[in-house]
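Input structure tokens:
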């Protein structure tokens, strides 16, 4: 069923688990994560970034996600990830997304508040909930832990939430997007989540949470991928983050790696194959497998 992000995330927050958020770009990724959620009876957030919308089009991705949600017995919410273009965010609200993220985290504090507040006002009028971000989460090319990351300040977080009225807050505790999260030892400030949580009541969101599973990296590498230096967030760190008040865990990179490894395997081991269904079918299965692991880690099994 099509779900409200606010309902499923608030429930998770009250009960001490997290709702898995998965980024999708196409039908196979969507079907893989939905199959995982259905098998494990987990609530699910399906998300599209601005890049995904540019690639596939909002109408296509919305129709796919809406179809999945309407056919499904588990609650599935549809979310706009890292919205920066205000017109696009409003379009998503009008389209019927369950929630939108306004990511004005690279703006000065006052501007972040002003932009977030204006989107909150607009989205709430339409019954859509809003995720905002304070501090900055590192980017895909950020090879050095901490470089380019501004950690979320707990006092500012309290003021930010109070003044914007946002429903969920993405916090910067040292994670970064992509497969190269740390150059040496993982350096996450789990304690910072506790400090932030002391001061605000709303659920927190962890971006850049992918594990970068070794088995998947090995398979991709075996079939030609060049992934030296990749490193993700450990399961134990994710569990601690959830214990301290994170109720939405964002995953994209692990799905991309699983997709890539599976496609490489088919093409390399069977060079005569050119039927897209036989190339992408195994990728869909691999996505499901990785999504199941993430759902178990979130503690959302049987919480649908
Ligand atoms: O948080 C970012 C997601 O991994 C989406 O990445 O902008 O390349 O679609 P993208
Ligand atoms: P990963 O790159 O760690 O999968 O993070 C994805 C994310 O935060 C999407 O918003
Ligand atoms: Zn993110």
């Amino acid at each position: 069923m099509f779900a409200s992000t606010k309902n499923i995330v608030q429930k998770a927050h009250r009960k001490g688990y997290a709702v898995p958020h998965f980024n999708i770009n196409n039908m196979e990724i969507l079907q893989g994560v939905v199959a995982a959620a259905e098998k494990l009876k987990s609530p699910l957030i399906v998300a599209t970034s601005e890049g995904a919308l540019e690639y596939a089009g909002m109408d296509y991705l919305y129709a796919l996600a809406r179809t999945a949600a309407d056919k499904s017995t588990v609650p599935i919410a549809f979310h706009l990830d890292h919205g920066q273009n205000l017109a696009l965010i409003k379009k998503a609200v009008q389209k019927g997304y369950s929630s939108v993220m306004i990511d004005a985290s690279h703006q000065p504090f006052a501007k972040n508040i002003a932009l977030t507040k204006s989107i909150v006002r607009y989205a709430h009028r339409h019954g859509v909930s809003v995720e905002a971000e304070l501090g900055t989460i590192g980017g895909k090319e950020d090879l050095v832990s901490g470089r380019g990351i501004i950690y979320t300040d707990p006092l500012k977080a309290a003021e930010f939430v109070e003044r914007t009225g946002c429903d969920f807050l993405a916090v910067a505790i040292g994670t970064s997007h992509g497969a190269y999260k740390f150059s040496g030892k993982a350096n996450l400030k789990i304690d910072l989540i506790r400090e932030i949580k002391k001061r605000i009541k709303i659920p927190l969101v962890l971006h850049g949470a992918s594990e970068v599973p070794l088995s998947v990296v090995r398979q991709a590498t075996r079939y030609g991928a060049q992934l030296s230096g990749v490193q993700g967030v450990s399961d134990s760190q994710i569990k601690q983050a959830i214990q301290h008040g994170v109720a939405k865990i964002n995953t994209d990179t692990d799905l991309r790696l699983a997709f890539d490894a599976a496609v490489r395997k088919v093409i390399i081991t069977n060079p005569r194959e050119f039927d897209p269904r036989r190339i992408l079918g195994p990728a869909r299965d691999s996505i499901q497998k990785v999504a199941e692991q993430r759902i178990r880690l979130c503690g959302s099994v049987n919480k649908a």
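The two ends are 10 Å apart (CA to CA). The first helix runs from residue 5 to 15.
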